[in-house]
Design goal:
It is a single chain. This protein has 143 residues and is α+β, with helices and mostly antiparallel strands. It has a single domain, classed as 2,3-Dihydroxybiphenyl 1,2-Dioxygenase, domain 1 (Roll). It is 22% helix and 46% strand. The chain is built from 3 helices and 8 strands; from the N terminus they run βαβββαβαβββ. The chain has an 8-stranded mixed sheet. The radius of gyration is 15 Å and the shape is globular.
Length: 143
Amino acid sequence: MNESNIENIEEVVIAVKDVGEAVAAFKDLFGMRFETEWDMANKNMKVRSERISGTQLQFVQSTSPEGVIAKFIESRGEGLNHIAFKVTNLKEMVSRLKAKGVKLIPEEPIEMKNPLGEGTWAYIFIHPKSACGTLIELIETRD
């Protein structure tokens, strides 16, 4: 079994009230386009993404007042939602983190079709209480 490692920062995710306004602001300020977009109906959110040197900068907007992003903005305001690390051997990393008492959300990784292309993703979050106050996502891509 391969050892688990962090390969790179995959995503920096910013929660916003309106992705269209955020995209327009970053286009005006930096010339960015955020042409990649998808909906995550099961999470009540839409995503717009721009890749910068291998890292995605994403804006996420809630599509429902009950969505996790709406609740985040209500309690903390717009801003950094989480950072995602691309990892190898997510299963082994999750086992190691559980053994150290790290709180994971949910308890086991979730698999989904890769919205950016072929294959699937598996992901899980580390609760901010276990990561210096920052929500961390761990992502493993699979062909």
